[in-house]
Design brief:
Helix content: 40-55%
Order of helices and strands: HHHHHHEEEEEEEEHEEHHHH
Strand order of the largest sheet: 1-4-5-8
Shape: globular
Bound molecules: coenzyme a persulfide
Low-confidence stretches: none
Number of helices: 11
Largest sheet: 4 strands, mixed
Length: about 400
């Protein structure tokens, strides 16, 4: 059983602890392993849809939406989202994915939507009746958001979208997409807008599915003369980049939390293996080299948890931007989880690379987290940028 003593840390209130216990009970009894066995195609789509419905029916997606629209807390509570992702990732990566995407896909509506937009979509997202997706990246604009070329051209009271979005989680199964597009010729990140595009809108198609090493619904979207009403815009023209970044300010810490969940599972698996597997007349856990690995793993997990929940707490309690803290949480938690899981595979020996063994699955699942929602390299740029900004603001004028 994973070490859950971190829930006693002062970052949480009684409501968080009750929620974490409720989630743990659900995840422990929900036979999530079976739900995660689908490896592709229609079976994978159905497994993901089913998980969204089951999470919704259990009331657990309420952490993805604000209280005024059926959510668990007043606003998007980052600590609740992190607790949820950590717990679900420890049990089954696809369950974590299903919950995370309901949050990420609808967060722009929560943070920047009008009352009418929120009312139309958020309650259904929280019930698991509507599946959400976030469409920012393009074939030639991943880290460099300002290089995006998808355009939304004003036409009468409508906007007409043209372009391609790729690496879109839930492509094909989502009912509603948050889509970012260029609305003016203003340079780089300045001329972007954000739109709500419903699946089935003429001109929106799924151009391809993308199969990845940790299977989940993922694909490329094409927009060919895709017409949406002006009322589908989130915020104002030109506000798209700020909206995208404010969504990532919330969700980057939760990526760190998912990494924590994977790492905790790896440590549990490795510890159980180290005390039961014998070599040279003693359990692996009797060897100091194995003890050193276990110590490094345990330490990395606690350090990552402190950064993740510091970032979540700051956002929830102090509000405002937490770009630096969220970048630190995501960077450290995902990079250290990769090392923890690699050590767990090493402790397992040959068995660690056998398909279907828990640590082998974790080894595949952790990798993408160092890339999506901002690569590790982007997080370093963000952290260094903030440090240099602070330095410049303190430096005496020449
Ligand atoms: N909240 C609100 N506003 C924000 C913000 C945030 N978190 N982050 C940036 N902004 C605003 C800034 O205040 C700035 O506004 P002004 O021009 O009015 O001053 C504007 O947005 C531009 O900000 P900045 O200069 O920091 O942006 P950069 O062009 O330097 O971009 C990086 C910075 C590279 C860090 C950004 O593009 C990024 O995070 N890229 C990775 C994208 C990503 O995660 N892709 C994965 C897709 S999701 S799977």
């Amino acid at each position: 059983m994973a070490d859950l003593s971190y829930r006693d840390w002062p970052f949480f209130d009684a409501g968080h602890r009750a929620f974490a216990a409720e989630l743990e009970a659900w995840a422990g009894s929900a036979d999530l392993d079976a739900a995660s066995h689908a490896t592709g195609g229609a079976a994978l789509d159905e497994a993901a849809r089913t998980l969204v419905r089951r999470l919704g029916a259990a009331g657990l997606l309420r952490v993805c939406i604000p209280g005024a629209h059926g959510g668990a807390r007043e606003g998007l509570d980052v600590r609740s989202l992190c607790l949820a992702r950590e717990c679900l990732a420890r049990h089954a990566g696809l369950a974590d994915f299903a919950l995370a995407m309901q949050g990420l896909g609808s967060a722009a509506i929560t943070l920047a939507g009008s009352e009418a937009q929120r009312r139309r979509y958020l309650p259904a997202v929280g019930e698991g009746a509507l599946i959400a997706a976030f469409a920012l990246s393009e074939p030639d604009a991943g880290s460099d958001v300002g290089a995006m070329t998808t355009r939304a051209v004003a036409d009468g009271g409508d906007y007409v979208l043209e372009g391609t979005k790729t690496w879109i989680s839930n492509a094909g199964i989502a009912d509603v997409y948050t889509v970012f597009a260029r609305v003016s010729d203003a340079p780089g990140t300045r001329g972007l807008g954000a739109f709500i595009v419903e699946a089935g809108t003429p001109g929106l198609t799924v151009a391809e599915r993308i199969d990845v090493i940790a299977p989940h619904p993922l694909g490329t979207l094409r927009f060919d003369g895709c017409r949406v009403p002006g009322s589908a815009m989130l915020g104002t023209p030109g506000e798209g980049f700020r909206i995208a970044m404010s969504v990532l300010d919330v969700f980057r810490a939760t990526v760190g939390a998912a990494a924590l969940g994977f790492a905790r599972r790896a440590l549990d698996e490795a510890t159980a293996r180290a005390v039961t597997r014998h070599a040279f007349g003693q359990p692996l856990a009797g060897f100091q080299l194995v003890q050193a690995k276990l110590a490094d793993m345990d330490l990395a997990i606690d350090a990552a948890a402190l950064l993740v929940y510091r970032s979540a707490w700051l956002k929830d309690v102090q509000g405002g931007r937490v770009t630096r803290e969220a970048a630190m949480a995501k960077l450290f938690a995902t990079e250290s989880a990769q090392r923890v899981i690699d050590d767990a595979v090493q402790i397992f020996g040959g068995l660690g690379v056998v398909s279907g063994v828990a640590v082998e699955r974790l080894y595949r699942e952790i990798r993408a987290l160092r890339i999506y929602e901002g690569t590790s390299e982007i997080q370093k740029l963000v952290i260094a940028g903030k440090l240099l900004e602070r330095h410049a603001s303190r430096a005496p004028a020449p």
